[in-house]
Write a structure and sequence with these properties.
- This protein is of the alpha+beta class.
- Helix content is about 30%, strand content about 30%.
- It contains three helices and five strands.
- It has helices at about 25-40, 70-75, 90-100, and strands at about 5-10, 45-55, 55-65, 105-110, 115-120.
- A five-stranded mixed beta sheet has the order 1-2-3-5-4, with helices on one face.
- The longest helix has 19 residues, at about 25-40.
- It starts with 6 loop residues before the first strand and ends with a strand.
- The relative contact order is 0.20.
Length: about 120
């Protein structure tokens, strides 16, 4: 998804190695979905950064894509809502359900620095 679009994938991982009890198969799908959405938002030429933190225990995926306006932000986790022409609006619903099942707090928004961040706190 990233190689053919000149999208750089950066890792900024904390030195600690915290243990989190998760369903690794479901979380793998969550991370793939988030990165795929980030790459689609970027289109061509940009950066996706995966960052972890031990205190607070957090995973963050940020991108330099086109961003999310406040109106769209309020609808993001609504079933069947999509900003994509052929989107089905189920990807973020799947992510929400997995994160809620694992009692995670999460947010998805574009910050004043122009970076859109999907933050997951465990």
């Amino acid at each position: 998804v990233c190689q053919n679009r000149n999208i750089t994938l950066c890792m900024d991982l904390c030195e600690e190695d915290p243990t989190v009890m998760i369903d690794t198969t479901l979380f793998e799908q969550v991370i793939i979905n988030i990165i795929k959405n980030a790459a689609e938002s970027i289109g061509e030429t940009g950066r996706i950064t995966i960052r972890t933190s031990a205190s607070p225990l957090m995973l963050e995926i940020g991108d330099t894509g086109k961003g999310i306006n406040k109106e769209v932000e309020t609808k993001l986790f609504t079933p069947f809502f999509s900003t994509k022409p052929n989107g089905q609006g189920i990807g973020l619903i799947f992510i929400r359900e997995v994160l809620m099942k694992h009692n995670c707090n999460f947010s998805l928004r574009t910050y004043p620095d122009g970076i859109t961040r999907f933050r997951i706190c465990f």
